[in-house]
User: What shape does this take?
Amino acid sequence: MPRGPSVVRTASAITWHALMLLTSWGMPCEVSFPLSSVLSPPGLRIHEYLYFQVLSPGDIRYIFTATPAKDFGGVFNTRYEQIHLVPADPPEACGELNNGVFIQDQIALVERGGCSFLSKTRVIQEHGGRAVIIADNAYDNDSFYIEMIQDSSRRTADIPALFLLGRDGYMIRRSLEQHGLPWAIISIPVNVTSIPTYEMMQPPWTFW
Assistant: This one.
């Protein structure tokens, strides 16, 4: 796997979601995966995803897929049934935040760009955030995940850091702006294996 930031196409995961949907409809099907994609780690595998559900606003009440940072940040030791997802101001979160008081003990939604993924994570951590979700700044990106790795500063971060597709981040922010809301309410992490209708609860604009 490349050491620098890279774009990873999650084709096998997309095929997996399609397979699950077909089998849920009772349709027999057979899917072959390259042996290398099973035995080696060139791409993101299904178990490397983390899921969260937006509970409010209702028009984006979907289950979203994110990928944890590769080599920095913490893990979710607690499931938050209801917690605020607060868009950072400014969105790139490369320095002092204008709405830092609202991020205290909540989760921040940040936009890619301006500084490293690790720097953004540290800014949110310093403002008391429980975790950070970093959305791609390519708003039309609905299928490519970015591998988030440490920068060259040798700094660390303790809170979980997740990457979100640009299209998903844009749609969440747009909904909040349309409703005049300062944050969304989410549940994270979500165990999708316990949700029989998971495929039907994914954002309709996501290719899978």
Summary: The beta strands are 7-9, 50-56, 63-68, 80-87, 107-111, 131-135, 144-146, 161-164, 184-188. The first strand starts at residue 7 and ends at 9. The CA atoms of residues 61 and 104 lie 24 Å apart. DSSP finds five helices and nine strands in the chain.
